[in-house]
Design a protein that fits this description.
InterPro entries: tRNA_Adeno_NH3ase_assoc_put. The protein has one domain. 34% of the residues lie in helices and 24% in strands. The protein contains five helices and six strands, in the order ββαβββαβααα. A six-stranded antiparallel beta sheet has the order 2-1-3-4-5-6, sandwiched between helices. Helix 4 packs antiparallel against helix 5. The chain is globular and about 45 Å long. The protein starts with a strand and ends with a helix. The model has no long low-confidence stretch (mean pLDDT 91).
């Protein structure tokens, strides 16, 4: 996959609804879109930036949780840097190893543990879109994710 891509998913009437996320490189826009779709079950954004890293964000009421698959991309990406700053994480150094950061357990109540999410982040064979597809499938909206991704 080349380019940036994102989806927003929300649970309504007992099923997942999924739509393409716009302005995926603007943290404020991502948060606004999440808040506008947050129903009783909240809303989830899955965002792939190039072939580099991914972000998962979740709005549940007024509570916002976010994670990034690799904090070291804050050295190269304004979006990653903004997220690191918002999450109050230490800014990475050039020699730091790749590691996820933020609220790694943000999907645990939906069936994806922090350990599973970290394992996905650590898999060097997977591109961000493949990692997000695995997350969407685990949460129960993999088919909708694939339809939007393939249609873009």
């Amino acid at each position: 996959m080349a380019g940036d891509f994102g989806i927003i998913a929300w649970h309504e009437d007992g099923r997942w609804n999924v739509a393409e996320l716009t302005h995926v490189t603007d943290l404020g826009s991502i948060m606004d879109q999440l808040n506008s779709q947050a129903t009783n079950g909240g809303a989830i954004a899955l965002i792939a930036i190039e072939e580099d890293f991914f972000i998962v964000a979740r709005a549940l009421g007024s509570h916002m949780q976010m994670m990034i698959s690799d904090v070291t991309y804050a050295l190269e990406s304004d979006l990653a840097g903004d997220l690191i700053e918002m999450l109050d994480l230490p800014f990475p150094e050039e020699e730091d190893d790749s590691q996820p950061g933020g609220d790694i357990d943000l999907l645990s109540d939906l069936g994806m543990s922090a350990m599973e999410l970290e394992a996905l982040c650590d898999d060097p064979e997977l591109f961000p879109d493949e990692q997000l597809d695995a997350i969407a499938s685990k949460l129960g909206f993999g088919n909708q994710f694939a339809e939007i991704y393939e249609g873009q």
